[in-house]
Amino acid sequence: MEPNAEVNTSFFRLSLQQQAAHFDKVLETAAHGTLKINTADLLKMKISLPNLETQRAIVAEIEAEQALVNANRELIRRMEAKIKSAINRVWGDAR
């Protein structure tokens, strides 16, 4: 599939990311040491292509979920720092 007016590039990228396990199976090492994928293996990949409006909705939903994941990671980092600080106040810095 080639990106065109009927393909949202973010949707295409996310679809390819979902194929990571497939890429792991078909990647080979070229003679000069870099990774390569055979065109025949690449052409066997199937990507569903809903209409453009649905693609945009899917991308928006995934991006919103990713924003929540990132915010939660930051919250965890902050809480861990606060916990560490509280433990150090109670027990002293054990360095």
Structure description:
This protein has helices spanning 9-17, 20-26, 39-43, 52-91, and strands spanning 28-29, 35-36. Strand 1 (28-29) and strand 2 (35-36) form a beta hairpin. It has one domain (9-91). 3% of the residues are buried. The protein has a two-stranded antiparallel ribbon with strand order 1-2. The chain has 4 helices and 2 strands, in the order H-H-E-E-H-H. The protein is mainly alpha-helical.
Taken from the alpha-carbon principal axes, the silhouette is flat
Question: What's the SSE pattern?
Answer: HHEEHH
Number of helices: 4
Mean pLDDT score: 88
How far apart are the first and last residues' alpha carbons, in Å? Answer: 56 Å
Placed side by side, the strands forming the largest sheet appear as 1-2
Poorly predicted regions are none
Category from helices, strands and their pairing: mainly alpha
How would you summarize the topology of this molecule?
Layout: H1 9-17, H2 20-26, E1 28-29, E2 35-36, H3 39-43, H4 52-91
Antiparallel strand pairs: 1-2
